[in-house]
Specification:
This protein is an alpha+beta fold. It has ten helices and 20 strands. It has an eight-stranded mixed sheet with strand order 2-3-17-19-20-15-14-18.
């Protein structure tokens, strides 16, 4: 992995200014922000040749699983019905409960009349064909939900673990907020038509990445090719598993409201990418578009290290401290995917609420390094204090307080102009 030159290994706290530094094939602009950054996170409004790829899907995103780098996006923040791709959120809630020891794989949940009627054989939708009033282990229900896309399995998991679908939906919302999925809303655990079922391809991709990295033992379920229940064998509904080398998950979806969608992931040469497409009019198109976007990503991108672990990234201003600034770093390497052609332009900004009030402890979360590719967020990495900053003298605190007052008045006046 190629690292950036040493002269970039530390973004100086430039107040409201821009520092542009040229690299061999990589342009980095840095802004050390005093206060909250106001730069927008805009999605590409349509396929553009300058983005290096064109796609027919109304909404799409391609993510590097390891770094979280965004390689491509189109209308990635547009809310749409996620259809059965919403089952990833249902799965996450169950995976979390299993990890926390709240439930076990061999726990048995009853297939209620509600689960059988809305999600079983009488429903006419995707089902694992569980019999009414039968008891099914959590392990088997997960297989039915993720391999067969069984709505009856999802309802049984919701009712069995939370008491009711409504209570489970509340847990889904809470978990989504905890994971940073700020736009997603849920009306049921199945993805069946409901006005409250709304997600973006960006947040579906974030959710898929979280599942892959957090629950590797449960992620293997998505790669199982078939599952038999009640003597009925069904194939995994994910077409990528047989279409693309290294594909091993995740979930398809379709409703009239949302169209055809797919969340997929594949590994090639040690590199894992995640693709999400939604809103297509044909099931073959969603498979083809997802496959082509993954192949384009594997073919055209490679990892690049921006900062090594614990390497200084930049500084944040400090209020009332023995020092006027605090050094920022990340305990993990900060990597980003860049085109193999080397014709990349990136803008990096350190974003934080500031100035940061002393005292400050090493490892304290301070802000975020945000990297833009054109007008789109390509990477977000948390930044932490790399040193301790004790409280300053009474004189220092008074000077800082006076400075903040003057800056506040200046801002207030500027806003009225």
């Amino acid at each position: 992995m190629t690292a950036i030159p040493s002269k970039l290994r530390g973004l100086a706290p430039v107040s409201r200014g821009i520092l542009v530094i040229g690299l061999a094939g990589l342009l980095v602009a840095s802004i050390g922000l005093y206060g909250v950054a106001g730069a927008a996170n805009n999605s590409v409004q349509g396929a553009k040749k300058e983005d290096g790829y064109e796609i027919d899907a109304p909404t799409a995103i391609l993510i590097d699983a390891k770094s979280g780098s965004i390689l491509f996006e189109k209308n990635a923040d547009e809310l749409r019905a996620p259809s059965s791709m919403l089952k990833l959120m249902t799965a996450e809630v169950i995976f979390d409960a299993l990890t926390q020891g709240k439930i076990k794989l061999d726990d048995e949940y009853r297939i209620t009349a509600n689960a059988w009627r809305k999600g079983g054989a009488p429903s006419g939708g995707s089902t694992m064909f569980a019999e009414i009033n039968s008891k099914v282990k959590v392990d088997d229900l997960l297989h039915g939900a993720l391999i067969q896309s069984g709505n009856d399995a999802c309802i049984a998991l919701a009712e069995g673990s939370a008491g009711s679908e409504r209570d489970f939906v509340e847990i889904m919302g809470d978990r989504a907020r905890a994971l940073g999925l700020t736009k997603s809303t849920f009306g049921n655990p199945t993805g069946l038509p409901d006005p409250n079922n709304k997600m973006t391809v960006r947040e579906l991709g974030m959710l898929a990445r979280h599942i892959i990295l957090t629950y590797p033992e449960y992620y293997k379920l998505f790669n199982e090719r078939e599952f038999t229940w009640n003597k009925i064998r069904q194939q995994n509904r994910n077409p990528l598993l047989t279409m693309l080398e290294g594909a091993d998950g995740l979930k398809t979806g379709f409703t009239k409201e949302g169209g055809y969608g797919l969340v997929g992931s594949a590994v090639q040469n040690g590199q894992r990418l995640i693709v999400v497409v939604n809103g297509l009019e044909d099931s073959d198109d969603r498979a083809t578009e997802a496959k082509k976007l993954l192949e384009w990503g594997f073919r055209n991108f490679e990892p690049r290290m921006l900062f090594a672990a614990d390497q200084g990234v930049g500084y944040a201003r400090v209020f009332g401290g023995e020092s006027r600034s605090v050094k920022l770093s990340s305990p993990e390497p900060i990597n980003i995917m860049v085109p193999r052609s080397g014709s990349e332009k990136l803008i990096a900004r350190i974003v934080y609420n500031g100035p940061v009030r002393a005292p400050i402890q090493p490892g304290q979360r301070i802000g975020t390094l945000k990297v833009w590719r054109n007008n789109n967020i390509a990477l977000e990495a948390p930044l932490y204090a790399a040193e301790s900053i004790g409280p300053g003298s009474t004189t220092r605190r008074a000077i800082d307080g006076a400075s903040e007052l003057v800056i506040g008045l200046f801002r207030s006046g500027a806003e009225k102009l």
